[in-house]
Amino acid sequence: MMINAERLCRVFEELVVIDSPSMEEGAVCLRLQTIFSELGAQVYVDETREKTGSQTGNLIAFFMGDVDAEPIMLSGHMDTVEPGRGINPVLRDGVYVSAGETILGADDKSAIAIIIEVMRTVREKNLKICPVEVVLTTCEEKGLLGAKALDISKLRSRFGLILDSTDVEGIVTKAPAANRFTFRIYGKAAHAGAQPEKGLSAIQVASSAISAIKLGRIDDETTCNIGIFHAGTATNIIPDLALIEGEVRSHNLARLEEVTLEIVSAFERSVKTARDSSPDPDFPFFEKELIRDFPNTDIKHDHRVVKLVQKAAYNQNRSMDTVTVGGGSDANIFFEKGIAAGVIGTGMKDLHTTSENVSISDMVSAAELIIEVLKIHSSGEPLY
What we know:
Elements: H1 5-16, H2 26-38, E1 42-45, H3 49-52, E2 59-63, E3 72-77, E4 89-92, E5 95-98, H4 106-124, E6 132-137, H5 145-149, E7 159-165, E8 170-175, E9 177-186, H6 202-211, E10 216-219, E11 222-231, E12 241-250, H7 253-276, E13 285-294, E14 297-298, H8 304-315, E15 321-324, H9 330-336, E16 340-345, E17 357-359, H10 360-379
Parallel strand pairs: 3-6, 3-7, 7-16, 8-15
Antiparallel strand pairs: 1-2, 2-6, 4-5, 5-17, 8-14, 8-16, 9-12, 9-13, 10-11, 11-12
Helix pairs in contact: 1-4, 4-10, 6-7, 8-10
């Protein structure tokens, strides 16, 4: 085994105790700049902080390599979700957990620790490899903001791997696009007991629309959810405002737009129906905000990044299946911008909960896989 598991663990422990909730990645970014510079990379932090609102920009570390081969990207994100302050990692039977009422931070600091250990191993073993471009983003957990703001023209790689998944025996090649919507229904307030006739319930109008919408799994490629509904201030006041927020996701872009339009139409019909019988022709009325949250990922199964990972896994007597998921990641943004980045796992489990955990063996396995990927790509050996 080439990977130094003890060293990998030390780095992981060091990183997770540095608080870095989304927007507050400054301290961990400074530490990573030092680490990658000491490893011989050309390191810079981009200027995306003004767009994302983070303390810092995305970190890019470029290793020149010794082989004339196309650069490969290795990527993860620096931010964590809450509760992510004062993390105390504890090792139990080879598995890291959080000791307190916090997440562990393996999402995604297990990825960063793995990448650092890979590049240290390359240097220590004097491996002759291709150029490697490490891209660590900010605000991934806030809507992929760092990746969205990243100027891809400044990167040298056009394919690579993102370490941001649980499955150590799968590479994510297909993920949906998503539209997000915010609707505001304006009715008329009135005393619910004394003068209900003068009121117009925004809740009733919104509920009528929602009842006409199919939620959950729409088909094999499409889902829809309304996750937020705010309305009303007291039980004796007819509510004059209802706020509804939700999303549509689909692997089929045409279907994504079709379902989004159906939802908008359902609300428009409900508002019109209520207005037709309203004593006030100006109420209710409807405001909508539609946001293209993120694009899809659709890496073909014969793409070189897929074949590289599968070849590396084969060489290690492991399986590596292509995986379709229902969530988004930085890979979605990179794909739209011209970088095919398959998502592979570090073994982290129970993400975004205080039960989050990751095993040393899975992190070592992921690091070994990446070393093999780099060796294969650098050697130029056939992938088919």
